[in-house]
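Late entry, evening session. Most of the bench is empty. Finally got around to the prediction I had been postponing all week. Sequence below, unchanged from the version circulated by S.P.
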Amino acid sequence: MGIGTVGSGTFNVLERNQDEIRRRAGRGIEIAMVADLDTARARSVVGDKAKVVGDAREIIANPDIDVVVELIGGYGIAKALVLEAIAAGKHVVTANKALLAVHGTEIFKAAAEKGVIVAFEAAVAGGIPIIKALREGLTANEIQWVAGIINGTTNFILSEMRDKGLDFDVVLKEAQRLGYAEADPTFDIEGVDAAHKATLISAIAFGIPVQFDKAYVEGITKLSAADIRYAEQLGYRIKLLGITKRADKGIELRVHPSLVPAKRLIANVEGAMNAVVVHGDAVGATLYYGKGAGSEPTASAVIADLVDIARLHDADPAHRVPPLAFQSHTLGAAGKDLPVLPMGEVVTSYYVRIRVSDEAGVLAKITGLLAEAGISIDAVLQREADEVGGEGSTQTDLIILTHDTREGNMDAVLAQIQGLPTVLAPITRIRKEELN
């Protein structure tokens, strides 16, 4: 259902590698029917190798079809079609992270009741098999945290801002011209796409229900070239990270720009590439890197799911790998024990840039307020006024790196500092993740 970029890639890879796939799956995987509103485009891809229809419900109504691949996207008709396919007793493969992040609990429950599989490797990080790694490869571990660059558009923009010293708006236009960003890039640049993926990762890593509505989401639209430059001078790179972490009182689930030490492998992931670091108690840190989007990389993940279904088609549903890694009867209890924490309860460290009057006593006043709030300073960088505002400038930038503190405490003290008469512009605050 849907034969655009990913659908055409899936068709082409399946055709090209059919013999190899049959040897691995133990049976052939045949595309019998393709549904797309643009039937002419669909026919140009599939030729006479499959029946082309304009109505996806013809696929669901066909009793000879075992598996439905949903590549339409979005929350609307895709949700109705997926639930109808499940009700008709068909397995579902989808790349639709938005649908599963918001409605996954309902969809997985319906699939369990019907004894069918919902597979979604392609929904997170494109061709990188991160779902399978978390759900199966690392199953012996208590996962402690996961941090990932899981949106290629924003990583491309941040890489270009750093390389060329340009501000966000300029680079966004270039990304759109090159096809890395959509005409309406809101889901990408505001962090929503990454948060959909982080929600699914969190559910699999910690055995909690999907809870997109509880994720903290912040995009990259307010980042400036100056902050990227200052971060570099301090030994850091700025990346948009999806982070989920086991904490004392629950689970952190957040997407936002982060300063990452330049020596970390993930800090050196450039362009539109994706990377995910998973930290388990037994294995330590493992890194997964590759193309997070594109026709054939994403098709690779779709077909891996199809092969799994071909292998498990006749298996007792109770003995299949659960879609969210943990047995379904344990999810409710775990969800109560491990709530998603509000952002004010999250503990991390910070980069703070404050535009101030270049006069005596300003730094002492600000550091005094931080000390009163119990916030420890890791480093301070003060720029020359001429560098910030040109010759004869009376303004300067103070850059402060803090040690770990609770976000609620940081919010309170920044509100105090913002109110000082010597603070001349809105304060920039970026979280810092050491990823030790």
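Two things to note before I forget:
The longest helix spans residues 97-114.
The chain has three domains: 5-128+296-335, 130-291+336-343, 347-432.
Will write this up properly tomorrow.
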